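Q: Could you fold this chain for me?
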Amino acid sequence: MKITFLGHSGFRIEIAGQVLLLDPWLKGNPKFPEARRAEAIAGATHVILTHGHFDHTADGATIAGELGIPVVGIYDLMSHYERTLDLTTVGFNKGGTVSLGDVRLTMVSATHSSTAEGENGPFYAGTEAGYMIAGEGKTIYVSGDTDVMADMGVFEALHHPQIGILCAGGYFTMDMKRAAYAARTFFNFETVIPCHFGTFPVLEQNADVLKAELPGVNVIEPQVLEPIEL
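A: Sure. Below is the predicted structure, expressed as structure tokens.
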């Protein structure tokens, strides 16, 4: 399994023969070197979106159309993409599980908001979500944009994820301290990878607090386009 950070909340996840692009925001992302775009998207099999905000969806539809691959996400937003952009999509909802080759993807709840920009301003884009990504005998919990939720205890009981990709920048989502609380209280992670930090001045700029508050957990502060092999 190989997890490569694309900046902000974007990841390239190579697992069980699939290459998943999670929330790819490449053009205009101050943390992503646009000259390396081709490298980031090469061989992708699916685009997976957690919600409608631009910093998660900005390049998703473009990449999917360019590569001829499906976009996967909440039913409402996927229906919009099919109707307006003629894309192939996999639209489902929370509690549902779909198969992407040998990968099992389960949509779980998050607590945030979700709109997308249209010609006449923001429009409803379905609700925000997270995912459990299961393959190669391991499960990754992708929190999406969220705060701490008691639901996380249910996620652990049902899925037992070993790896957590957690939003942790604060202001728009839980911060490093709250992400550490969530990891410590509800999960038994072996590895935690924070995201949604460092992109803008208003966000936390490093993972020092998360590392300090999760002794015994492999907290990896990801670097853009440096693969993490697990």
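A (continued): DSSP finds seven helices and 16 strands in the chain.
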